[in-house]
Amino acid sequence: MTLTTGSKGYVNQEGFQNALYMIDIGQNDLSDSFAKNLSYVQVVKRIPLVIAEIKDAMKTLYNQGGRKFWVHNTGPLGCLPQKLWLVQRKEGDLDATGCISSYNSAAQLFNTALLHLCQEMKSELADATVVYVDIYSIKYDIISNAKRYGFLNPLMGCCGAGGPPYNYNIKMTCGNPGSQACGDGSQYISWDGTHYTEAANAIVAKRILSTDYSIPKMSFDFFCHK
């Protein structure tokens, strides 16, 4: 059942029970924590609190009749051009791909905790289907093997300001005065320093639908049937 803008109706009980609840979460929670100048250790300590909120949300949906959950983990935060431009780094902070190691490490710890939660929910929520999708591995592979996929400058945004290596400036973000979009967005992974381009997202979507990164390996078509 699809609700359009201005619709007066709500999803009925059957629609609620048959709906697929897609949870794609984590990046903003980690990003905001680092933005508050918390240390790596402090950020990691906050992860269980975020996981607990996700658990509560899933249980609330379940108690209202939701039974189908499609959970994405978070991507490599340390590879975003925005973070690479903003963060004051020390020597050795970047990995072989040029991403911020501590940010990606925090993302991976979050993902491990999220996987454990999904496994826990499978046992706790009777007759519910919970699929965990490894978005991190999909995106990191695209970034670290950018040339194989036809991308240039994997850590550089298409739309922004400042040019190489990241083409990002917090004072001239995409769409604001001083910013400029590249001529061919299909050659870039990052659109504006935080979001992926249509070309990159197309690859991500194809990988998701392949089920190669899903636990369990369940076809998306499964959720299209009652």
Automatic annotation (TrEMBL):
<keyword id="KW-0325">Glycoprotein</keyword>
<dbReference type="Pfam" id="PF00657">
    <property type="entry name" value="Lipase_GDSL"/>
</dbReference>
<dbReference type="GO" id="GO:0016788">
    <property type="term" value="F:hydrolase activity, acting on ester bonds"/>
</dbReference>
<dbReference type="InterPro" id="IPR036514">
    <property type="entry name" value="SGNH_hydro_sf"/>
</dbReference>
<dbReference type="InterPro" id="IPR001087">
    <property type="entry name" value="GDSL"/>
</dbReference>
<protein>
    <submittedName>
        <fullName>Uncharacterized protein</fullName>
    </submittedName>
</protein>
<comment type="similarity">
    <text>Belongs to the 'GDSL' lipolytic enzyme family.</text>
</comment>
